[in-house]
Design brief:
The protein is built from 22 helices and 14 strands. The chain has helices at residues 12-22, 39-46, 69-84, 104-109, 129-145, 179-193, 207-211, 224-238, 250-264, 269-274, 279-285, 302-314, 331-341, 351-361, 370-379, 404-430, 447-452, 468-474, 485-488, 500-506, 511-527, 535-545, and strands at 26-31, 55-57, 88-93, 117-119, 166-170, 196-201, 218-221, 295-300, 319-325, 345-347, 365-368, 383-385, 497-498, 532-533. The chain has a 5-stranded parallel β-sheet, with helices on both faces. It folds into 4 domains: 12-147, Rossmann fold (3-Layer(aba) Sandwich); 163-276, Nitrogenase molybdenum iron protein domain (Rossmann fold, 3-Layer(aba) Sandwich), CATH 3.40.50; 279-419, 3-Layer(aba) Sandwich (Rossmann fold), CATH 3.40.50.1980; 497-546, Orthogonal Bundle (Helicase, Ruva Protein, domain 3), CATH 1.10.8.550. Helix 6 (179-193) packs across helix 16 (404-430) and helix 14 packs across helix 15. [4Fe-4S] cluster binds at residue 36. It catalyses: chlorophyllide a + oxidized 2[4Fe-4S]-[ferredoxin] + 2 ADP + 2 phosphate = protochlorophyllide a + reduced 2[4Fe-4S]-[ferredoxin] + 2 ATP + 2 H2O.
Amino acid sequence: MRLSVWTYEGPPHVGAIRVATAMEGVHYVLHAPQGDTYADLLFTMIERRPARPAVSYTTFQARDLGRDTADLFKSSAIAAYERFRPEALLVGSSCTAELLQDDPGGLAKTLGLPIPVVPLDLPSYQRKETWGASETFYHLTRAMAGPMAPAAGADRPARPEGQAPSCNILGPVALGFRHRDDVYEVRRLLESLGVQINVVAPMGARPADLARLGEADFNVVLYPEVADTAARWLEKTFRQPRTHAVPIGVGATRDFVREVAELAGLDPEPTLASLTPRLPWYSRSVDSTYLTGKRVFVFGDATHALAAARVATEEMGFEVVGLGTYVREFARDIRAAAKAYGVEPVISDDYLEVESAIADLRPDLVLGTQMERHVAKRLGVPCAVISAPVHVQDFPARHAPQMGVEGANVLFDTWVHPLMMGLEEHLLGMFREDFEFHGDAGPSHLASASAARPSASGASPASDSPSTESVADSSSTESASIPTAADSGVGVVDAPVWSADAERELHKIPFFVRGKARRNTERYATERGVPTITVETLYDAKAHFSR
């Protein structure tokens, strides 16, 4: 564990709170000092939940360390049971209380509570929030469904003839990125196939529902980071197969339908024929300026990052230049995908390392978390959020899924609009000082009105305002061949400094080739030992690389 201004994940007990809060009839007693009681803020402010998270804290203070903190935990557990009357109780320690070694699980067993008590041993100094959610769901599943398990080696009973196949939907939790809306879309897909939903968990499930998990024919794993461990245990214990396709994007949704149909013994064709996403047509019809060949950097949890990379390349015409995740438990999957795309994987939970990778690659679009949104804004690169961690604006009141047919449509809108609006902002800035199109100019077809109003800069139409021709010429660097430092054989020296005039001139170049123009100019100046880049240097570099 290390201190950081920003962090992709909190400690594992936050993951446990996400599971407890998503469920009904579950309460979490957390042995924690007063400073670790910030979960209310996460769930009520960011996710805008109408109720407090399902957690009680012992909230011991420094003066309590001189007496028995174990007694404080036991009294807190009894008070939580009497107040909330849960059907199952989770108990554990926060990262700070873990140092006291009070053993909340053992202490809770001595209380003789008339409900299942599930102890959570979550090593805060080795693991993170997503892993904590996975472990919590796994232990709850074992505690509730374990007593219903068939004898070892027994065959799974055949489904009665005429009975519709059923499945469990596993993985959605509180504070999950669009989990509520994803579940709605996946339900529609499954019902269109003729599959009944047995249990959705953790979101909305009760402990008694977890006891019924073994009744389903198979499991649909929507978010492997949370549900994979529990699904593996169910597969081993109840002989329940599980899905592997995650329906994010058109191609993955079709793969998901086919996989579910095979597990359920159903015909997928009627459902496949009914899928009419707008994304493929929109991607083909939109101006190639916005899409074709755009260089994208993808970062997030493994599920969303892998799905986004596939959609970007196969369905949007983008080129993936960077791919990474902060969930180290799924680093192998990211590395395999990165190798297939021919890029270097970024496996890190340090946002500064991710920022450095983005700055080096200079992509045209960043698909990431709220951290990458801040980084991209600082670097002047368009960005769309595809994964947790997210902020309040990514929990919209409207229906905005990532999965299924409607999810594919949402992806198109979310990813393309930053590029389109970025171009619009560039054009507005480019013509801001134009004698005819500035904000104070009158209608162009009324000469008297135009002549009566001064230009925005106060200059006459014949003034030396930048011409659109020079901007168009600057953008020709898009097609220039760009030698690398290795090609030139020149060693790396101190980066040249941009003069204010050169920076202003650079920003007249369209945003989608501005990064390339900046790189070319800096390389040109470095090779010639030019310490300060001026407007003349910028145009000399343009002429050099345009040959």
